[in-house]
Amino acid sequence: MKKIAVVGSYAVGMTIFGDHFPIAGETVPGHGFFACHGGKGSNQAVAAARMGAKVVYGTCIGNDSFGDGAMKLFDEEKMDASFVTRSKEGQSTGVGIVIINSEGENEIVIDFGANKEFSPADIDRMVPALKECSLLLMQLECSMETVEYAAAKCKEIGVPFVLNPAPFSPLSDDLLRNCTYVTPNQTEARLILHLATDDPTPDSEIARMLYEKGIPNVIVTLGNEGCYIKNDTLDVQVPGIKVDAVDTTGAGDTFTGAFCVAIAEGKSITEACRFGNVAAGIAVTIPGVVESIPTREEVDKKMEEM
User: Fold this and answer.
1) How far apart are CA 129 and CA 47, in angstroms?
2) CA angle at residue 275 from 270 to 276, to 5 degrees?
3) Is the dihedral of CA 85, 86, 89, 93 positive or negative?
4) Is 124 an active-site residue?
5) Which residues pair with 237 in a beta bridge?
6) Burial (CB count within 10 angstroms: exposed 0-12, middle 13-18, buried 19+), residue 261
7) Rounded Cα gap, residues 216 and 230, in angstroms
8) In what order do the strands lie in the sheet with 80-86?
9) Contact 254, 47 (CB under 8 A)
10) Whole-model pTM?
11) Residues 142, 58 contacting (CB under 8 angstroms)
């Protein structure tokens, strides 16, 4: 088992359905409530663990029942949670509250809570473990200070740094240059370049423009079309797989976790993208996020059938 590190958010997603959105002071009858594990860091760590990696995970959660549920998840997925901290500032575990109306539109309120407490000092505590890992994967749901510090620290100690720049926040050129791999989707890739989200520039050109900002390996994910790779030797699209999609939520997290495991195992970047595409393709055929992340056996079997 290859060892990889993931640092990022954990949050509980709480969803309820109603006929319409409430206006100020209004109480609206709802139905179909459910709560589920979430947070991009946690989702990607689970994906990596199910793909066969030994995952060292770092995040900050609250001293509450949601935090207890997070620790249970990490244990069930056989992740090393020794770098998961509990809030010292009285912050709650991260939560996202989703209301969906009868037309399928949603309104979402997110509080990342304790996630923002994971600090550069916590990264320093992880350094001995990071030196034993094939890479460190992060996203943008914890503090930007911590992301930038972790990227610089990884460059200093010679550990590849993978950034999934979601949800989008402005990124410094120094951060981008400290990344080994950056995996934006089509929207995030354009925002990094200060373009409109609907900018018509071809994805191949978008990937080239990101590469020219000093990122050694750019992988722009393209949904069911797969992904586009740009580095010093490759300028190519890796196609996705054809499936009947049921729920695309979390597909990007599944791709990213699987991609990182394949890279850690020494696969080429093209092979790693193909592996990630297959894992994500399986995930979208099943409702839910954590519930839809496949196992290594399922991905290997699907690849053998192709």
Assistant:
1) 20
2) 95
3) positive
4) no
5) 228
6) buried
7) 8
8) 80-86, 54-61, 3-7, 136-138, 161-163, 181-182, 217-221, 227-230, 235-238
9) yes
10) 0.94
11) no
**Inter-residue contact 29 to 23 (CB < 8 Å):** no
CATH 3.40.1000.10 fits 3-20+30-305, yes or no: no
| Residue 131: count of CB within 10 angstroms of its CB | 11
Strand partners, 230: 218, 235
pLDDT digits 0-9 by tens, 247-277: 888 899 999 999 999 999 999 999 999 999 9
Q: For residue 152, what are its two tokens?
A: 């610089």
- The whole-angstrom distance between residue 118's C-alpha and the CA centroid of its chain comes to 17
Query: Long-range contacts for 232-238 (Cβ within 8 Å, ≥24 apart)?
Result: 234/269, 234/270, 235/204, 235/207, 235/208, 236/270, 237/203, 237/204, 238/270, 238/273, 238/274, 238/277
Is residue 302 a contact partner of residue 278, using CB atoms and an 8 Å limit? yes
Task: Kindly report, residue by residue over 34-64, the tens digit of the pLDDT.
Answer: 999 999 999 999 999 999 999 999 999 999 9
Which one is catalytic: 64, 122, 203, 253?
253
- Residues facing residue 36 across a β-bridge: 13
Q: Is residue 26 classed exposed, middle or buried when 0-12, 13-18 and 19+ CB atoms within 10 A define those classes?
A: exposed
Mean pLDDT (the chain) is: 96
Say what angle helices 269-283 and 251-264 make with each other, to 10 degrees: 150
Q: In the numeric block, which tokens belong to residue 283?
A: 């995930």
